[in-house]
Specification:
GO molecular function, one term: proton transmembrane transporter activity
Distance between the termini: 38 Å
Number of helices: 4
Family: Belongs to the ATPase g subunit family.
Oligomer: single chain
Mean pLDDT: 87
Number of strands: 0
InterPro entries: ATP_synth_F0_gsu_mt
Structural class: mainly alpha
Protein name: Mitochondrial ATP synthase subunit G protein
Low-confidence stretches: none
Subcellular location: Mitochondrion membrane
Order of helices and strands: HHHH
Helix content: over 70%
């Protein structure tokens, strides 16, 4: 057990020294490769402006997304009304699993939003 711990410690030191030696080079390469995405001047004010632009652009895109969702729902309703007799059990099962997955993600988001508590009370 002690020898495995020493091996693990040695490996961790080796990885740590590799990261320290190569992180600066990697950082410079990453910035150079993605230079077209960097807004000049790179200041806090520029970041705030970009953040506001992103927020309001996404806010402005909500009506378009809402209309797309409405079209998709209408299409599904039409398919169900026209081809109800042709539906297979597998298709209904897949749709049910998709709905269940969406509900599970909603529940997980709610739990995360409450600080990883089930009831919402912090102990």
């Amino acid at each position: 057990m002690a020898s495995q711990l020493n091996q693990l410690r040695a490996k961790a030191m080796e990885v740590s020294s590799f990261v320290v030696k190569n992180s600066g080079t990697y950082y410079k390469q990453l910035l150079e490769k993605n230079k077209k995405y960097i807004q000049e001047p790179p200041t806090v004010e520029t970041c705030r402006l970009l953040s506001k632009q992103l927020f309001y652009t996404r806010l402005a895109s909500i009506p378009g997304r809402k209309e797309s969702l409405r079209k998709e729902v209408d299409h599904v309703k039409q398919m169900l009304s026209k081809h109800r007799q042709e539906l297979k059990v597998e298709d209904v099962g897949i749709a049910a699993l998709l709905g269940l997955e969406c509900f599970a993600w909603f529940c997980a988001g709610e739990i995360i939003g409450r600080g990883f508590t089930i009831t919402g009370y912090h102990v």
